[in-house]
Amino acid sequence: MVEKKKTLQDRYVIAHPDDRELYQLGESDEFFYVLLKRWSDSELGFGRCGAVVESVRFKKAGTIMYGRVAVKYSHGVDRDGFLLSNERQVLKKVQEKGAHPNIVQMLDWIKKIVVDDTETQPALVLEYIDGWTLDEVCRRWPLSLWVLMDVIVLRWLIQLGNGLKHLHDNNITHGDMKLHNVMISFDGLRVIIIDFGFSTKSEKGHNPDSDMKQLGRMICQLLAYRSRDAAKEFIQDSSLSACKRIVARHGGDFFGYKTKLDGLFDGSMNADGFIACMKGCKHIILERQRRSIPEEHRLRNAIMKDSKLSLKRIYRGANL
Q: Which residues form the Protein kinase domain (predicted)?
């Protein structure tokens, strides 16, 4: 009797006996993708238009290629896959000249994936980001830690501006800039813009004003997390005009009173101007932190010297 040839999945199970429940998700021309956990444990994000699950990929030929990826598929409002297809086209254009460190990288495209034992629309394979969204980071930080982390937040904003600049230089508007669509790696060193379903691209007549206004609203939300007074005003009125007033009133505590961010809301500031403005704020924040009380000064220095200090460790230290 001829022994049946073992598949790559079988060989992986033999090599890793603890991972017996392999669930095949789908395959592309070069790779096939499986879940090593239950579906509920593999879910990374779930929204109105799509969901993201953690997967691993194997190369079809040759040795096993193991690596974590994020597989995004359509459901709900985007059941026909229009937004997902649009995201694929936008990321393809963004990556024509190479990947950008502040924009999520597209790795592959799966023609069909299996969800609940039924084949669904195509799925997008993205790089796996080991981190949290900016919204999750803000919610986890205690209010007392915000003043100590101003320089780190400023570095994140500069990276965010670099990502937007790359998009706008390629005539692409993100269209859905918010705290949920910005991810921070656990080491705190990398900012990644995600979710390009609502992005638009144009060859001429590109207008990035909508992205810059949404960036202004994001800064208003950051100030609301940092200041209770700003939070009260934002809860009462979160319109764009109200955000402009909140940033003008409370932004001086963070950026310095000479820093003007009104251009984010009236269309006069582009990504280059925003990056230059954030870099100009750095010495103001450092000077303010030098005047902090000795205990805050000691903790700030410990955070700034250890560039590999993860966000998890920062939170754990703040809770003691």
A: 38-320
